[in-house]
Amino acid sequence: MNDKQVDLIIRNGTVIDGSKAPRYEADVAVKDGRIVAIGELAGYTATQTLDAKGRIVAPGFIDSHTHDDTAVLSHPGMDFKVSQGVTTVIAGNCGISAAPLRHDMELPMPLALVETTPAARFTSFAAYLAAMRAQPSSVNIAAMVGHSTLRAVVMSELDRPANAREIAQMREMVEEAMQAGAIGLSTGTFYPPAAAATTEEIIEVARPLTSRKAIYATHMRDESAHVMDSLEETFRIGRELGVPVVVSHHKVQNQANFGRSQETLPLIRETMKHQCVSLDCYPYTAGSTMIRTDRGMLEGRVLIASSDPHPEMAGRDLDDIAREWGVAKDAAARRLQPGSAIYFMMDENDVQRILAFDETMVGSDGIPVGDKPHPRLWGTFPRVLGHYSRDVGLFPLETAVWKMTGLTARNFGLAGRGTLKAGNAADIVVFDAATVRDAANYTNPTLPAEGIHAVIVNGALTWRDGVHQGARQGQVLTRSNSK
Ligand code: ZN
Ligand code: CU
């Protein structure tokens, strides 16, 4: 067999390999879904050749924080991610997962945000992963099990801590998820379904993580006045379980807390000396989640992203809706529930400080629901590359790429991904450093990024110059099979 005959060669590109090392010129050869050689490959022949002259060749981006749990099944083309250069998504965040569920249960918000087809519920994590393997999407997925989801399955009322029997039941479900291939467990104590959970409940439910050193990720209880306490709670859970923790979409919200990333980041850095901590961040000053009515969330400008009773209000300002209806802002919000909204509640300086923190990964937290989602769903990665790295100069392009590839693969234990080197899976993005930019904004939130020329997933050309190529080569990544 001629080992210089390969499936695909990307010629004349500038390689940024995902390790933060400086860029260099090289060809990249791909065969059987893997990178087989990087360098001066004049002697190679390939079935397919891409010319990348003047362009960057980087590892496919790993979206460290998504809610794509069921989108990979309902929208397997995953255009909103592939178009940005994303080749892997981490799902099961904020306490919410697609499995396990019961057929006979109502899903409270925000759990309903990831549900698309109630008829196709998965009663075990194994069934969920099997469905994704049977019907692959265009991206790889690694999934966590959600603590709020487990509470909704096991508990008859969610506004109290779980009792010993319920904790044991949830722990058994975590064990099942771990055996099936979940990479960890997430919590969302910020949200009503888990707000009453104690720290001890979480620790006891999450016990099966310990022997696997699986991930504990959290949308913390409080990201405003009590953010320091929330960080301490998160670190304690990680310590007692002896597992790595991920502080999801780190932020400090509400005007009274603007600037407090100057307190949180030093605490995170100090804690990193003693235990395994990582964090992710999306590059916007607005957040997005279920429609809420509490004053803190409604303090700034609020845009309605989706509303079940009033779909016609998607994309509109809550202030205008309230004025039109002649009611207070919180009353209008209540009428629009259930649904999702965009909340302007962060300070640009905090966003930049957190994003620039060397250990911060990029994660979109995109919510793939409705016509007017937060623009982060389509724009996160090109926004970091174009706006924050190139235009604002927050960090070099090599650092930007590392925050969305090598760092993320390391933190989530995705071996064989996240860097360009021979032997690794051929997840690759080719983009133009001078023109890459996010086009999605709050008015037109579903515009694909510009400057992303080619996206390759497990060796298959999946996106090229604005057009999906139809490939569905995404794999289910687990901590054991992702060598
Ligand atoms: Zn969250
Ligand atoms: Cu989230």
Give structural notes.
The structure is a single chain. With 483 residues, this protein is an alpha/beta fold. It folds into 2 domains: 296 residues, Alpha-Beta Barrel (TIM Barrel), CATH 3.20.20.140; 59 residues, D-aminoacylase. Domain 3 (Dna Ligase, domain 1, 2-Layer Sandwich). 30% of the residues lie in helices and 22% in strands. It is built from 17 helices and 20 strands. The strands form 3 sheets. Strands 1, 2, 3, 4, 5, 17, 18, 19 and 20 form a 9-stranded mixed β-sheet that branches. An 8-stranded parallel β-sheet has the order 6-7-8-9-10-11-12-16, sandwiched between helices. Strand 1 and strand 2 form a beta hairpin. Helix 7 packs parallel to helix 9, helix 9 packs parallel to helix 10 and helix 12 packs across helix 13. It is globular. It starts with a strand and ends in a 15-residue tail after the last strand. The relative contact order is 0.17. Zinc ion binds next to loops.
